[in-house]
Amino acid sequence: MIRRCCVPGCKSNYDSTRKENSQCITTFSFPKNEDRRKKWIKGIPRKHWTSTVSSVVCCLHFNPEDVIRHDKFLQPDGTQKEISLSHPRLTENAVPCIFPNLPKYLSTGVKRKRKDPESRREDAFQRHSAAVERFLNDDLIKDFSDFKNNFPQKVNMCKWEVKVLENCVYFFTLNYETKLTIRNCERVSEHLTVNIHLNKNELSAADLRWILPVNLKVSKWSQIINILARYQEPQKIVALKM
Asked: Which residues contact 51 (CB under 8 A, 6 or more apart)?
């Protein structure tokens, strides 16, 4: 006997949709357990309706993971064999939740099978590696044109004033205590070399070895950000011991 699905809009096993000699779509009777039966009725978007002994739901409305189509058993020699079930069965917690012929909001969606711990760790590592690579690429200063055009978006200048010239950019803080003077100044040249003066004293390569190479050439936005953050306040010049 051909059993037709009771879900609204579903035409499974109806004469109008069945092709000649095609197999019937698997259907499942409502659970005998009252709590599970109520969950099925609640899950099906059909108002003022209750199931009968002949009501069935086809397999198209269940998550694929909830439909068991194969069974496994151990053979006498200890090996495992898998056989196809003539009539699939459902997992204990299966509930109708997919309704392709109804508005999408009525479907709760297909459950994603949780990956094993090793796969999740590998995915997390790949995401982390990709994030690090994006950061490193975004942190690179390509050339002076890139620096001059993008430093307003890349750098938090806070207490720094800025003067942009054709072949260099000056960052400086002002002293308002007596007369207006420049307190600290950082100059980035067209060759991306950096010169820093604190209270008229120029810092040497040794003073800046914590952030810049010996040639004092900047190549990353993070270097500029750290320099400006460190030297925005009045500094006491201390010679570094080599």
From this structure: 6, 30, 37, 40, 41
pLDDT of 190 > 90? The answer is yes
pLDDT tens-digit map of 65-80: 999 998 877 777 778 7
In angstroms, what CA-CA distances link 237 with 200, 203, 230?
A: 11, 9, 13
Half-sphere exposure of 24 (CA within 13 A, CB side): 16
Same domain, yes or no: 226 and 150: yes
Check whether residue 101 and residue 150 sit in a common domain: no
pLDDT digits (tens, 9 = 90+) for 142-171: 999 999 999 999 998 778 999 999 999 999
pTM: 0.51
CA 13 – CA 54 distance, rounded (Å) = 14
Which of 59, 85, 106 is the endpoint of a domain?
106
Q: What is the pLDDT of residue 146?
A: 96
User: Could you list the residue range(s) of the whole structural domain that residue 209 is in?
Assistant: 144-230
Amino acid at 118: E
